[in-house]
Amino acid sequence: MVRVRVPAKVNLALSVGPLGADGFHELATVFQAVSLYDEVGLTQRGDSDGLRIAVTGTEAAGVPLDAANLAWRAVANIAEAAGVPTNVDLAIVKGIPVAGGMAGGSADAAAAFLAAKTLWDVDVDLAAMAAELGSDVPFALMGGMAVGSGRGDQLVPAMARGHYEWVFAVATEGLSTPSVYGACDRLRVDQNVPAPAIAADLMLALRQGDPGAVGKHLSNDLQPAAISLAPHLAEVLALGEDHGALGSLVSGSGPTCAFLVAGEEQALEVGVALSSSGLCGAVRRAAGPVGGARVVAHG
Ligand code: C5P
């Protein structure tokens, strides 16, 4: 048996270039791993019934229980590479919002890759396999803070310091990533979309480790698209700002809204305002950066 813990992510900046011929957009992004976690367990069985999957936890509803689940595919891919049968139980405990723009599905895939590699003791290039499965999977393996380019899968550690406190407003219904990218293309159809780039002001604020300055320079090109599909997100973001958040943005392709806060008091102020507004589902607190996928039990 192997158990792996893996964090969610938030993008502090997400700059989206034009739609490429491969159906993907070139990105420039800054990832931060935050302390909302999924746990993925992999247990070898003696029978030959193949892969079985179970999903539990506060965020389990709506998670696919077949090969549509990226974690399932991760285990199947490693088994194929290693030439071993997939007679394992895959148990996912969800704490990361589902279809929320926090890369929960990619996190499970990253954790499943690491669990399968550890269980079967195989020598495979996880980073390459991870990028093939999904653009956010490599970052879930790496964790910390990183600048992403390409599809978001080409990573270099960010020159950044500091500790960041977050409040997350989780929506009651998710948004599909391809539909948000599609809405982004429609909104920009008449524009000459420039190559993606990260604002120098954000990188300076991160080098200084100054949450106040980072809060002023958060940005997400997918935010107008997510708001066009779920207009109440504009009100959610405004509410957090009105209650003193250092900065706010839609996380990734949304619809989770992320609020950077100065500390305990501000987190409570923003959290209470959001939970009593009726505009969102759960309100969660987290901090970052935290490490990427890690084996927490093996035996
Ligand atoms: O790689 P991932 O499976 O997360 O991508 C899901 C979808 O999001 C892609 O099929 C594509 O429509 C969109 N996407 C994109 N550009 C990226 C990453 C994702 O258009 N860089």
Write up this protein:
This protein has helices at residues 70-82, 104-120, 126-133, 137-142, 177-187, 200-208, 211-216, 223-229, 232-242, 264-277, and strands at residues 2-19, 25-44, 52-56, 88-93, 145-149, 154-157, 164-169, 219-220, 247-250, 257-261, 283-288, 294-298. It contains ten helices and twelve strands. The strands form two sheets. Strands 1, 2, 3, 4, 5, 6, 8 and 12 form an eight-stranded mixed sheet that branches. A four-stranded antiparallel sheet has the order 9-10-7-11. The termini are close together. The chain is α+β, with helices and mostly antiparallel strands. The structure holds cytidine-5'-monophosphate (C5P).
What are the SSEs and their pairings?
Blueprint: E1 2-19, E2 25-44, E3 52-56, H1 70-82, E4 88-93, H2 104-120, H3 126-133, H4 137-142, E5 145-149, E6 154-157, E7 164-169, H5 177-187, H6 200-208, H7 211-216, E8 219-220, H8 223-229, H9 232-242, E9 247-250, E10 257-261, H10 264-277, E11 283-288, E12 294-298
Parallel strand pairs: 1-8, 3-4
Antiparallel strand pairs: 1-2, 1-12, 2-4, 2-5, 5-6, 7-10, 7-11, 9-10
Helix pairs in contact: 1-2, 5-8, 9-10
Cytidine-5'-monophosphate binds at residues 23-25, 27, 134-136, 151-152, 177-178, 181.
How would you sum up this structure in a few lines?
The protein is of the alpha+beta class.
Shape: globular
Q: What is the succession of H and E elements? A: EEEHEHHHEEEHHHEHHEEHEE
- How many β-strand stretches? 12
Beta-strand portion reads: 25-35%
- Overall helicity: 25-40%
What hetero molecules are in the model?
Answer: cytidine-5'-monophosphate
End-to-end span in angstroms?
5 Å
User: Helix segment count?
Assistant: 10
User: Structural class, judged by helices and strands?
Assistant: alpha+beta
Taking pLDDT < 50 over at least 5 consecutive residues as the criterion, the unreliable ranges are none
Largest sheet: 8 strands, mixed
Radius of gyration, taken over Cα atoms and rounded to an integer in Å: 19 Å
On the 0 to 100 scale, the average pLDDT is 96
